[in-house]
Amino acid sequence: MPPTLRTPRLLLDAYTPEDEESFVALFQDPRVSRWMGDGPAPEAEHRALFGRIFSKVYARDLFDVWAVRRGRLLVGHAEIKRTEEAGGHEIVYALAPEVWGSGLGTELADALARHGFETLALTEVHATVDAENTASLRLLGRIGFEHVRDVVEDDGGLTRVLTRRPRCSASGNTTGAGQNTRHGVLAAPRREGARARVPLRCVCRRRSPPWDE
Fold first, then answer.
1. Is residue 204 included in any domain, yes or no?
2. For residue 165, which of 114, 98, 208, 92 has the smallest C-alpha distance?
3. Number of helices and strands (H, E) in the chain?
4. Where's the N-acetyltransferase domain (predicted)?
5. Is residue 11 part of a domain?
6. What is the rounded distance in angstroms from the CA atom of residue 66 to the CA atom of residue 22?
């Protein structure tokens, strides 16, 4: 199960069975799903995906997957896992449109990166973003992510890979280093021809989820 994380306004904790309707509603929202993987999917597919969070990810302790809550409301989804395309651990998250424009995307992305450094003892954390999504690129840039390379997708689209490394303190020591307690797994390949596009407040690279097998 993932460790509980807190930011000034958000709580990240493990999903519970009671979260199913909110999870499905998040990914069934066309404003979210249009940017995710192959685009909109049937409701049954998202319900099956929710079940696999418990039967595969949590049961096998594969990597960290969180429900993102604000107060009592589930307002998003978050992950940190190892993916082939990023070449390391990648942050993945989506927020409900109702909370867009509030700065929660920046708050959440920063918390995920810090978790990678402070808990997983990573030396770098990655994000992948559609090259046309300048808003998300700016968001990540503000919290220390730098553009390192581009990936040409099957449809000719361009995806930017960004990387953030731990910052050094004035003494020269690297901050955000901790004990390596967990690790991710390789993400499953995206279906041929799919292109993940990332809107502002949904900084993620959702291909076929690694538990969607």
1. no
2. 114
3. 6, 8
4. 10-165
5. yes
6. 13
* DSSP codes, 117-166: HHTS--S-EEEEEETT-HHHHHHHHHTT-EEEEEEE-TTS-EEEEEEE-P
Number of folded domains in the chain? 1
CATH number of the domain where residue 91 is located: 3.40.630.30
Q: Tell me, what amino acid is at 116?
A: G
Instruction: Render pLDDT for 140-177 as a digit per residue (tens, 0 to 9).
Output: 999 999 999 999 988 888 889 999 999 743 334 454 44
Residue range 15-42, pLDDT digits in tens? 999 999 999 999 999 888 766 666 679 9
Residue 82 to residue 152: CA distance in whole angstroms: 20
* Secondary structure element (H or E) that encloses residue 46, with its range: helix 43-52
CA distances from residue 45 to 8, 26, 31, 40, 212 in whole angstroms, order as listed: 33, 13, 18, 10, 10
Record the tokens describing residue 150, joined without a space: 């581009």
> What range defines the domain where residue 95 resides?
5-164
Q: Does 140 reside within a domain?
A: yes
Q: What three-state secondary structure class fits 28?
A: helix
Is 82:183 a contact under the CB 8 Å cutoff? yes
In a domain, 128, yes or no: yes
